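queue> pop job 88
queue> type: inverse folding (structure -> sequence)
queue> payload:
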């Protein structure tokens, strides 16, 4: 009975913690909604965050997309060779990159780079009372700190996903045609025959949602950080882990709805 009681107590505490997190996120979204149309609009902050989230993430996204496309081509060719279906390698690479691997891997990479930076920066501002100082001066911290990061995440993730899709397909082409002697014309024709516009749009919609998840979770963790340097580290780790888990979970449901 004691063991069962302690287990129920742990489950209850975990449930309350999850509900508290969801409630705080809902309040953060509501606060952004109240201030989205209010002036002044700090476009300079938006462009700065777009640079932080988008421009500075380009190298890691390109490397990830290129390696993924090349490895996918190698693995697909090895498997399809057993069924004499080598001509479908281009189709598999294109569909896999645009539907799943492009948006998901881009989201995971951006969560590890830009999401961690958001949580660490805001967490440092929280523990050093800079956020409280902004509020005392009449500056809305949500509009000044959170909303530009949210906009940057939602706008830049689709662009980064397009880059990852493109470089992944190019990498698959190079490996298939130059290394595995797949016919170039057949590779391109098969890719164009089976790749549809909806496949690309579905991947971009996923990227928009993943960008929102990364921004909201990272900003929330940073805003609620406490306990000095240790608290900032925990907030940063929690932001990356939670963002990655939510990206993977939401990807399943989005795939079920879209395809």
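queue> result:
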């Amino acid at each position: 009975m004691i063991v069962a009681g302690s287990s129920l107590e742990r489950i209850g505490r975990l449930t309350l913690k999850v509900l508290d997190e969801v409630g705080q996120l809902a309040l953060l979204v509501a606060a952004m909604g109240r201030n989205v149309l209010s002036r002044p609009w700090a476009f300079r902050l938006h462009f700065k965050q777009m640079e932080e989230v988008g421009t500075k993430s380009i190298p890691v996204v390109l490397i990830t997309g290129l390696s993924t496309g090349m490895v996918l081509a190698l693995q697909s060719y090895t498997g399809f060779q057993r069924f004499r279906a080598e001509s479908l390698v281009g189709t598999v690479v294109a569909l896999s990159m645009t539907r799943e691997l492009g948006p998901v891997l881009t989201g995971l990479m951006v969560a590890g780079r830009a999401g961690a930076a958001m949580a660490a920066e805001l967490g440092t501002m929280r523990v050093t009372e800079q956020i409280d100082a902004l509020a005392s001066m009449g500056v809305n911290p949500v509009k000044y700190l959170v909303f530009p990061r949210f906009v940057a995440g939602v706008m830049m993730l689709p662009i980064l996903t397009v880059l990852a899709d493109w470089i992944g397909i190019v990498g698959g082409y190079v490996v298939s045609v130059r290394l595995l002697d797949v016919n170039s014309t057949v590779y391109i024709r098969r890719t164009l025959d089976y790749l549809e516009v909806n496949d690309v749009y579905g991947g971009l919609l996923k990227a928009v949602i993943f960008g929102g998840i990364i921004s909201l979770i990272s900003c929330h963790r940073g805003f609620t950080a406490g306990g000095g340097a240790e608290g900032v580290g925990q907030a940063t780790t929690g932001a990356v882990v939670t963002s990655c888990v939510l990206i993977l979970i939401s990807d399943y449901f989005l795939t079920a709805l879209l395809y």
